């Protein structure tokens, strides 16, 4: 292992340069320099909502004009962006593919792995985010994770000279509220920023699950029905602080720390009934589930930037992140048919995650306006997942249950090196890259005394082309090879109890999904109009998917397996502009095609689907102090390995009134038509299932924002740390 790491580091950084992959630089007060003609550069389209920045390998969207984002969570901010889809439970996908890597300021976070991803996005306030980069076909500069692409959340930084700050208060229906404060200080050499916030969200849902399971003895079907009401309360507290100091006009050092604490409570009573092939009741029971979860996440990082003669730049960063995730799941089964005494069960989960990362990047401009980037990234994960199970006839008489007790240890080192070369050739700009990643994985199923190794070394090429047709028009084309690595918990084969009829398990033999991705794009821009059209095609193999298996007696196991092979493609359109002096529009939509191969005789056959999806918003600046906004979105129908998920539709309203130059009030109404709900179906030879879930997403929020500071002398320019806004 050491030899391979040394070789990769030397290959990536022959000049001993350290890099920071895809991490946006700290803001500098010096104005960003304009890109040279025919270089990759960036186009900023203003006078519309949201402001859009495009470059050869990514698109960046401002969320400042989205009123839902000003009072909601990060999930609310993502819901209205092109190519991004967010369902009622906060799960994010790109063009219908949920295999998305989410970064914060260009860096990965363990918050966005496993079953916590949606919960983390729903608990974090959107007002901490300034821009969102949507990268559907990343270059080799980015790590290969995320077959659907990358969503990079760019957080707000201190703006203006001297002291700056803001306060924000939000209150909504159903005991929903939030408060946040931020402050910053900029001087000639020092930049410091900090923000704190707290948030409480509540949600109520009603779900109905109807199953028809073939009875092998009679050939008929047994009917199993579940009716469940879920109440959720999530309290979260966030804090972040950063400082940057210019040692010289060419050298900057910095440090940053952030922390998040979330307390998550679930109360979910449900009723199960089972009828035999004749329709007579064979089994029933009531089930009360309570979940208490406490998750504390913290990260600290240090970074260095240095400018060389000739505009070369070196960036280095070292970070360490720790997460403690403690959960208690308590279940009570009662009123059983056939008659049986009440049964109680409890699972205590203690998950401890550690992530350490060293990253580096060296950028060197070359003759003929070419640019070379070299970098490396070494990430080490050390995770432990402990589950202790207890059962008994009363809450105070629980005894340990060995079948519900497990310790799983996951250790992984990903060592990567990359090189990209960019050069304009007349009207054509070429960005070519190659990334090599070495993965060494150790899995320790401590309870069963089993261990597995899963190591591999692979190369991931990328190619991006941009052809300037005129000052207003451009064609683009791109290719990339991506992977979707399973989350650490997905390797754990332990059967985790969900309820008496449902278990979930991982698979220690999972392989990463391989994705070949192709795109063709057209861009037209003549302020204030921006038009984008993209044709895309993806082919996936070794996809990891949920497989529902019958364990007998009406009990089912949902486990992960490399059983999916699929293809997808489509046309995506984006149009931003101005209808009148006071009305702007932001429209994006598309028609997507997907095909999912059959997984065998007990699954659905090979199927294909064409489905529309899209988002749209109208913003009206009614007066200099009053702004109204209408948002609408539709998530298209999606295929699943054993069935499909129906489309989802939602409509939101927003209003902002400026009370003064520093004080404003925002009112938002979400899901005003009450149409945002989920429906999924499974249709196989042995199982038919229909699941419908209604959420209380209809709500009104009122937010108050007060800004302060921002005056004083501007910082003298040293050198441009910021660069083009979308440059990593």
Strand content: over 45%
Ranges where pLDDT stays below 50 over 5 or more residues in a row are: 1-50, 711-728
Q: Largest sheet, if any?
A: 22 strands, antiparallel, barrel
What does the radius of gyration come to?
26 Å
Number of structural domains: 1
* CATH fold descriptor: Maltoporin, Chain A
Q: State the helix count.
A: 4
Return the average pLDDT rounded to an integer.
Answer: 84
What is the CATH architecture annotation?
Answer: Beta Barrel
Structural class: mainly beta
Assign the CATH superfamily.
TonB-dependent receptor, beta-barrel domain
Number of strands: 39
Report the principal-axis shape.
Answer: globular
N→C terminal distance: 29 Å
CATH class reads Mainly Beta
Helical content, roughly? under 10%
């Amino acid at each position: 292992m050491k030899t391979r790491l040394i070789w990769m580091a030397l290959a990536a950084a022959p000049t001993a340069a350290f890099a920071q992959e895809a991490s946006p630089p700290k803001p500098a007060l010096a104005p960003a320099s304009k890109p040279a003609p025919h270089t990759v550069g960036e186009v900023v389209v203003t006078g519309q909502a949201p402001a859009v920045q495009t470059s050869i390998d990514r698109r960046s969207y401002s969320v400042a004009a989205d009123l839902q984002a000003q009072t909601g969570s990060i999930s609310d901010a993502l819901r209205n962006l092109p190519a991004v889809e967010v369902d009622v439970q906060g799960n994010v996908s790109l063009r219908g593919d949920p295999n998305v890597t989410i970064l914060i300021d260009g860096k990965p976070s363990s918050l966005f792995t496993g079953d916590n991803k949606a919960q983390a996005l729903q608990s974090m306030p959107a007002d901490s985010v300034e821009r969102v980069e949507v990268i559907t076909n990343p270059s080799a500069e980015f790590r290969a994770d995320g077959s659907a692409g990358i969503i990079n959340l760019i957080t707000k930084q201190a703006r203006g000279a001297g002291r700056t700050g803001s306060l924000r208060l939000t209150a909504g229906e159903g005991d929903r509220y939030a408060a946040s404060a931020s402050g910053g200080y900029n001087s000639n050499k020092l930049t410091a920023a900090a923000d704190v916030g707290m948030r409480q969200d509540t949600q109520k849902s009603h779900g109905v699950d109807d199953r028809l399971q073939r009875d092998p003895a009679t050939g008929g079907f047994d009917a199993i029905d579940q009716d469940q009401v879920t109440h959720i309360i999530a309290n979260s507290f966030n804090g972040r602080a950063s400082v940057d100091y210019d040692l010289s006009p060419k050298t900057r050092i910095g440090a940053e720390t952030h922390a998040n604490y979330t307390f998550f409570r679930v109360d979910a009573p449900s009723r199960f009934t089972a009828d035999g092939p004749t329709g007579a009741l064979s089994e029933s029971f009531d089930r009360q589930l309570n979940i208490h979860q406490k998750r504390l996440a913290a990260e600290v990082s240090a970074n260095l930037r240095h400018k060389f003669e000739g505009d070369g730049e070196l960036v280095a960063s070292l970070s360490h992140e720790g997460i403690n995730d403690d959960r208690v799941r308590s279940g009570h089964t009662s009123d059983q048919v056939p008659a049986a005494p009440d049964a109680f069960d409890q699972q205590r989960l203690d998950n401890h995650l550690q992530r350490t990362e060293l990253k580096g990047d060296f950028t060197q401009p070359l003759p003929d306006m070419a640019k070379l980037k070299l970098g490396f990234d070494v990430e080490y994960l050390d995770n432990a997942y402990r589950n202790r199970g207890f059962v008994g006839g009363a809450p105070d008489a629980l005894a340990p249950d060995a079948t519900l007790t497990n310790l799983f240890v996951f250790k992984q080192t990903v060592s990567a090196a990359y090189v990209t070369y960019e050069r304009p050739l007349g009207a054509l700009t070429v960005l070519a890259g190659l990334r090599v990643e070495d993965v060494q994985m150790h899995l320790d199923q401590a309870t069963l005394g089993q261990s597995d190794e899963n190591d591999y070394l692979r190369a991931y090429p990328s190619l991006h082309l941009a052809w300037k047709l005129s000052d207003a028009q451009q064609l683009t084309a791109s290719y990339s090879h991506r992977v979707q690595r399973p989350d650490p918990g997905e390797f754990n084969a332990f059967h985790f109890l969900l309820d008496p009829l449902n278990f979930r398990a991982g698979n220690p033999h999972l392989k990463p999904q391989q994705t070949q991705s192709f795109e063709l794009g057209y861009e037209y821009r003549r302020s204030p109009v921006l038009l984008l059209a993209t044709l895309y095609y993806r082919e996936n193999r070794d996809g990891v998917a949920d497989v529902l298996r019958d364990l007998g007696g009406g009990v089912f196991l949902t486990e992960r397996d490399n059983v999916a092979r699929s293809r997808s493609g489509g046309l995506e359109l984006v149009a931003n502009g101005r209808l009148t002096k006071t009305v702007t529009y932001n429209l994006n939509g598309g028609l997507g095609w997907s095909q999912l191969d059959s997984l065998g005789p007990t699954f659905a056959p090979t199927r294909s689907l064409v489905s529309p999806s899209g988002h749209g918003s109208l913003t009206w600046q009614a007066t200099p102090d009053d702004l109204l906004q209408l948002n609408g979105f539709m998530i298209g129908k999606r295929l699943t390995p054993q069935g499909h998920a129906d489309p989802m539709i939602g409509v939101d309203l927003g209003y902002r009134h400026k009370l003064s130059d520093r004080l404003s009030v925002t009112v938002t109404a979400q899901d005003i038509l009450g149409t945002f709900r989920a429906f999924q179906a499974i249709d196989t030879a042995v199982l038919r299932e229909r699941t419908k879930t209604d959420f209380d997403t209809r709500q009104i929020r009122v937010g108050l924002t007060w800004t302060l500071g921002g005056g004083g002398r501007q910082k003298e320019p040293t050198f441009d740390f910021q660069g083009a806004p979308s440059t990593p």
